[in-house]
């Protein structure tokens, strides 16, 4: 084969590759991998939120009305999220372009969807049994006690100032 023939052959291959790229459908494996990574990121975000909720419940154990229920629900949610995370790592490693791995990936993906549904239900229950009011809201009883503290502090300060003024005028 001459040099000119080889160049023509290479040119035809480049044209064929270029045409193939245009007509080639979406690579399902790349799409599935990206979807799995996105699901994993959402799982991490929810796990972080649940860890924060767990910290709050443990910090307010004495005053929390539904302490045990919230503890169980948050623990269940976090356990399910860890299971989903592990399954996502496993599914992300499979190549769904291979026939053997398609069926197991499909079954595992269905399990993940069911677990995510359960996580959603559990987190709705966590919200339902959460604190009635956030920490930064002061209820009427706290407000009255706070006002009494301010008044007694003011009375104490005023009394001190009067005694100090009386001592200064006597001299």
UniProtKB/TrEMBL annotation:
Primary gene name: NINJ2
Membrane topology type: Multi-pass membrane protein
Principal location class: membrane
Region Disordered, annotated ranges: 1-22
Subcellular location: Membrane
Example GO BP: tissue regeneration
Transmembrane stretches, start-end: 67-91, 111-130
Family statement: Belongs to the ninjurin family.
GO CC term, one of those recorded: membrane
Name of this chain's protein: Ninjurin-2
Organism: Nephila pilipes (Giant wood spider)
Taxonomy, superkingdom: Eukaryota
Keywords: Cell adhesion, Membrane, Transmembrane, Transmembrane helix
